[in-house]
Amino acid sequence: MTTVREGADRVELVLPDGRIIDYAIQISLKSRSLRLKLSARDGMVVVVPPNLDRQKLLALVAAKADWIGKRIAGFDAVRHLITTESAARPQAFDLAALAESWRVEYKPTRSRTVGARVDQPGRIVVAGAVDDVDACHAALRRWLASHATMTLSPWLANLAEPAGLRYTDVVIKNQRTRWGSCSTTGRISLNCKLLFLPRDLVQYVIWHELCHLLELNHSKRFWMHLRHFEPAADSLRGRMRDAGKAVPTWAQRGVGLVR
Questions:
Q1: N or C terminus: fewer CB in 10 A for the chain?
Q2: Is 137 exposed, middle or buried (0-12, 13-18, 19+ CB in 10 A)?
Q3: What residue spans in the chain does CATH classification 3.30.2010.10 cover?
Q4: pLDDT 10s per residue in the chain (259 long)?
Q5: Separation CA 48–CA 37 (nearest Å)
Q6: Regarding the domain delimited by 88-258, which CATH topology (the fold level of the hierarchy) does it fall under?
Q7: In terms of Cα–Cα distance, which of 101, 97, 94 is closest to 204?
């Protein structure tokens, strides 16, 4: 028998084999039904609409216990790999969207902080208290956000202007749960981690957000607009499900959804 026990902040689920996992509940105004998100990095998150009865929510999750158990069976090995990668400073990385390869060199100084800068084409120097691996990762993420601002912003403009699509502003951030979004005021946000994705997937995300300027929903009309600008939208949408795997551990703050 599968049971669900509630704690103060998270919810515990006892699987049929006796294992206990805990999960977070995320309320989404855009969600119409319960959705499970599982990853070795972030564990399990249950996304639900705000009007879903809590007891019904717990029962629905418990009913999926067998499926959940099978999905998380291999997570321990993946978590070990993530932990190992998290303890390392990257020596090189590729930005597939821009066809760029970067080497990273570390320069210890007396500074208590850590910064990253380009000192020659294809090379980034991380300087300061470089024994602090987390600080090195944070410096590289700041560099990534800056580089993405310089490259994704004009990319967005170059697609929008010929298509006659007008947005009010663009913001490039290291978003935790979305590849991109478009607000009711026409402000488009793009995730700097898009630079790790293949070029066609990045272009798909940009078109996706631009089409929200026409339809701020995922109605049939929205998909019609998206397929007009990006004929391969359906296949690209499928590939986006695994796109987060292209992002290295040091850059991670979660993997994305396109809204």
A1: N
A2: buried
A3: 88-258
A4: 344 444 435 678 878 877 778 888 888 877 788 888 876 666 788 888 888 888 888 888 889 888 888 877 766 555 544 445 555 899 999 999 999 999 999 999 999 999 999 999 999 999 999 999 999 999 999 999 999 999 999 999 999 999 999 999 999 999 887 999 999 999 999 999 999 999 999 999 999 999 999 999 999 999 999 999 999 999 999 999 889 989 998 998 643 444 4
A5: 11
A6: Zincin-like (3.30.2010)
A7: 97
